[in-house]
Amino acid sequence: MAEIVQQRIEERIPELEQLERVGLFTKKEVKSIIKRATALEYKLHRLIINKEDFIAYIQYEINILELIKKRRAHIHYQFKREEIEYPIIHRINSVFSRATKKWKDDVQLWLSHVAFCKKWATKAQISKVFSTMLAIHPDKPVMWIMAAKSELEDRNSSESARHLFLRALRFHPNNKKVYQEYFRMELLHCEKLRKQKEELELAQMDLGEYEFSPEILSAKLAEIVYRESTGKIKEAEFVISLLDIAAIFKFTKELQDFILQDLQANYTEDSLTWDFMARRELEAPGAGEELQTAKGRASDTNRREERCCQVYEEGVKSLNTEPMWTCYAAFCLERLKRKTNVQELKEKRQERLLGVLQRAHNSSLLKEEYYKNWLQVLLSSEDAEGAAGVAMAATQRYSQSVSVWSLSLQTLIHLESGAVGKLFQDALTHVNPKESLPLWQLQVQWSVANQSPEETEAVFKRGLLSAVAAVAMEMKESYLDWSFSTGGYKKARKTFTSLNENRPLSKAFFTKMIQIEKEQETPKMSCLRDYYERALQEFGTSDDDLWLKYIQEELGPQGQPENCGKIHWRAMKFLEGESVERFTSKYTLLQTGHL
Predict the structure, then answer these.
(1) Which phi and psi (to 5°) does residue 400 adopt?
(2) b/e for 520-552, b at 16 or more Cβ within 10 A?
(3) What is the pTM of this model?
(4) Which of 130, 411, 496, 535 has its CA 20 to 30 A from that of 552?
(5) Gene3D superfamilies from the entry (predicted)?
């Protein structure tokens, strides 16, 4: 191993001598480089090699390259690159090659090599790296796309890029992203040729027998890609994505028209087609003379939106589905949210949205989340009767949805409806008990604010009987809190006594009672001990903080410090797993006064 390392160091000597001779590095710095490089080389030639050692070696060499670059700029010396930088770049490439052969599956390592090649190495080296990488990772479409993009941008070779895309499609014949980028590449190639032709014509150069193919210049290759891809991927969303790519280029009007005709002819069963066609109406040219005033601009906008709605109306007639109504409602909501100072336009947009939501609801095709938007619009326009009706209708349409019940009940509470109490009972019978906690919390809030203490207590007691642990525990905590706020310490203590034996129990239930006790003018230490002991019966095996707080309580003015040793012994006996270590370290901090 020593001979190999020595040979590697000796290979560096010519470049290091040049660095010193031309004044880029001092003699001391060169010695430092040799020392560090020797240590790194030894790590690379051990029997058991680590990826981190290779990365450290590469990073050190790149740092040297960056330093050379800065010093060249500083002293304005730009010669002898072949003797200084090129050997370092070659060495880094060879180390990268060794690393990627050893750890073939590390994609990030391959990408790091590609990034290095782009910044420092030759363009031919990038192609070699990509070629090796694709032989090992042909299953990753993004790698093929990167390689093709590199061929087009770095080597200016559209032929190689096309060849890579065709190879990629053998491995991924139905991959949307590969087809999209292939389509984009053909359009970029076409754009480049058109620019070349324009420049040559402008220079009036004689091309001899060479001619630019009219088919290629008119994006026929991109059209072939489109036909091939849509033959395999028959989705409106994919077709629209290709149309969006074509729209970036100015010379693709014919291609766009062809794609648009195909979309309208073959994809009318997809709501996205109607949505796309409708939104295109917003981009239609307007009347120039009207756009001079705010009212004129609003009138023109309203006409465009009306045309969009006409397309949507055709869509819901031929495709009466939930996704179609969702697209229509989303468009109307989006337009309503747009700011305008013209009240007429705002009112028209609101009227349009409410009409669409009502019709979608009547068809039982309105999505759950749009009921919230519907209620917000009605409440903002102070239509209490309409909001109450929608709230009730929403619960009938989505009777098992907790979020719909919560939203509807909140709306009816806001409107001070008299039917809220009965609706809470209906809600709890319809929804899944495991998901009912938000409804119980909402009912408690409403009952505390609107009902008598007896009725509120009845709500709590019903909640305590829930078979769902989360609901029962939450009700216990809320009941204790409410008891203290309405009846003071005595009632809270009575409530705690009646509930502390009924499982499931939560830590918050005990800590709340401890807090209530400590807030009294003369807190009873015997009561606090009782609360801690009961809490530790439930959570003593895992909760180290509870033991620590118990010890802190005994160290306080009301406690007996001589009990701390016994509590510590019990904690060490009861606690399990990692909680023992946490308790030990925290207890040590407490003893030294750092906690």
Answers:
(1) -105, 5
(2) eeebeeebbbbbbebbbebbbeebbebbbebbe
(3) 0.76
(4) 496
(5) Tetratricopeptide repeat domain
Residue ranges of the chain with per-residue pLDDT less than 70: 1, 121, 204-211, 285-292, 594-595
Q: Name the residue type at position 123.
A: K
- At 133, the amino acid letter reads M
Angstrom distances, CA of residue 140 to CA of 137, 179, 257, 355:
6, 14, 33, 48
403: Cβ–Cβ under 8 A, 6 or more apart, which residues?
A: 368
Q: How far apart are CA 493 and CA 487, in angstroms?
A: 10
State residue 366 phi and psi, 5-degree precision.
Answer: -95, 130
Cα distances from 225 to residues 158, 189, 419, in angstroms, run 15, 13, 62
Residues in the chain: 595
Residue type, 557: P
Q: What is the pLDDT of residue 301?
A: 87
Q: How much is the pLDDT for 232?
A: 93
Phi-psi region of 213 (alpha: psi -120 to 50; beta: other; left: phi over 0): beta
Distance, CA of 387 to chain centre: 34
Q: What's the confidence (pLDDT) of residue 379?
A: 87
| Beta carbons within 10 angstroms of residue 324's beta carbon | 23
**Which tokens belong to 106?**
């590390």
Q: Are 517 and 528 in contact (CB under 8 A)?
A: yes
3-state helix, strand and coil shares in percent for the chain, rounded to the nearest 5: 80, 0, 20
CA gyration radius, the chain: 37
Task: Give the model's pLDDT for residue 209.
Answer: 56
Domain regions of the chain by residue span: 1-103, 522-594
Q: What is the dihedral of CA 580, 585, 590, 595, to 10 degrees?
A: -110
Q: What is the DSSP letter of 572?
A: H
CA terminus-to-terminus distance, the chain: 55
Q: Cα dist. 555→523, 525, 580 in Å? A: 15, 12, 21
> How remote is the C-alpha of 44 from its chain's centroid?
39
Q: How far is CA 451 from CA 138, 442, 446, 455, 567, in A?
A: 68, 13, 8, 6, 45
For tokens 């409440």, what's the residue?
Answer: 379
**Dist CA 210 CA 203 (whole Å):** 16
Q: In this structure, are residues 489 and 520 in contact, taking their beta carbons and an 8 Å threshold? A: yes
How far apart, in whole angstroms, are the C-alpha atoms of residue 400 and residue 423?
13
Q: CA torsion angle for 339, 343, 347, 350 (degrees, to 10)?
A: 10
Amino acid letter for position 307:
R
Q: What are phi and psi of 442, to 5 degrees?
A: -65, -40
Sequence-distant (≥ 6) Cβ neighbours of residue 153 within 8 angstroms:
none
3-state SS of 245-308 is HHHCCCCCHHHHHHHHHHHHHHCCCCHHHHHHHHHHHHHCCCCHHHHHCHHHHHHHHHHHHHHH
Farthest-apart Cα atoms in the chain, separation: 107
8 Å CB contact between 256 and 243: yes
